[in-house]
């Protein structure tokens, strides 16, 4: 009985023997026994059968994840091994001095190209607004009638849709601010240095913000913003009744044509000498002079009583306004009002009197003009208080602290004719100048695009790829290329060449387009300067500088860039040929490269075989230890 119980006890090493069964020859028998046991157990425990079925469904997914994890781990280990071998291989390599020189050259090239593009864009002394000012003058309407009104400042509603204010001064308005000066006596600074006045405003005013409760408690006051305003009223300068001058502007003038054309087209000829021009047959000659006078019979206008010659109006208190037509000068077309006695060379800029600073809360602060436009002629002048009174904005001195309305400063009205144009330059050349000016912005667009491409070229080629290429030429091992050491340098080099050639082609296309745009305009402007078509000092300065900009800056710099890119493409071909002839690694010979790569491959294969042998030995050792252990 004891022997039976002893036989019934399961052997202690049975589990280990069961684990070894898959490695023995009776695998099939084990599988059959296992299937029979599983079937019997399932018959006895149906619930476990359901669970086993779930496990069997999940096992393939778990096995797949395990396989992927093991594969990634194995690849990582192989990359580490390859990286170490690549480093050992690269230590034996000489530094490729030719490619280092190549990288240094491209850094210099990228800096030079960037500098040329910046200079080409920066050195444009003429802006789109300068040419537009010329075009606006040549395209302005002439005036064939002028009226005045006291009550209604809207000329269109007063006289009709063809009428508009003779002049309009745009007052830009002010920002909101916080005044913490606490009633400082600003007049103490009036005769001091301008810098002291500027410093006072910076310390005492918080620009473009309202006062906080803490500031209000300290005595600060919020200064409300003032909206922009349009001034179009004038007076006699002696506190007379304000009035608005309304002009009727007409189109149809043919300034670019000569007398024979005017006669053939049966148009009225106005002006004399070089100032002859045409107007439609149903239109009188336009206004060529305006002014104010205290003489009621100025130029005998009241006696002539002919509006085709001129007219004169009584504005009250012995103050008269007059206009005259058909004189030797060109017609008046532009009228501006400014502080001081001169209009800025760039007419849209607002002048200010010398040694005066503009109010700090102004949204667009004025500065004294360095250069002025002599084609504008003074018509009349009144002091600053009269100017603000006539436009009903004297209240600004109360709304804005330290807003100084001072009678010592004058405001003046100016008039300007068409820019004088030589008769020999009229016709096709005149039309070409107008056309090229209307498309001048394409030059600046192309320069901006070229600058953007050049900056990209500098960042990508001059910095990023230059650093990568230099490190590679100095035998730096990139881990991303560890599994392909034979192609590391050429792979990086080809990417660099690809990016560089792509950016160079883009730059060359932009430069060629710029050449096409600039060349046409350059030749037209050159004809204008060579033929002395314009006698106006501002226009002469403008066209002379425009020719210089287009020729010396944009044209020359673009030509220099093209030469640099041409040399660069030749060097690219030389370096590519050098790479193909010398093999994969820094100028080493092919057979030397192949030998070392074979060694790498053999070492990698041997190491892999050794790892497999070690694993097999470990398995056999474990099996033998289990078999030799006591039962």
Automatic annotation (TrEMBL):
Alphabetized UniProt keyword annotations: Membrane, Transmembrane, Transmembrane helix
Superkingdom of origin organism: Eukaryota
Biased composition (Low complexity): 25-39
Biased composition regions of type Basic and acidic residues, renumbered to the chain: 593-604
Region Disordered, residue ranges: 1-56, 586-631
TM stretches of this protein: 100-121, 455-478, 490-518, 555-576
Polar residues composition bias: residue spans: 40-55
Name of this chain's protein: Transmembrane protein
Taxonomic source organism: Paramecium sonneborni
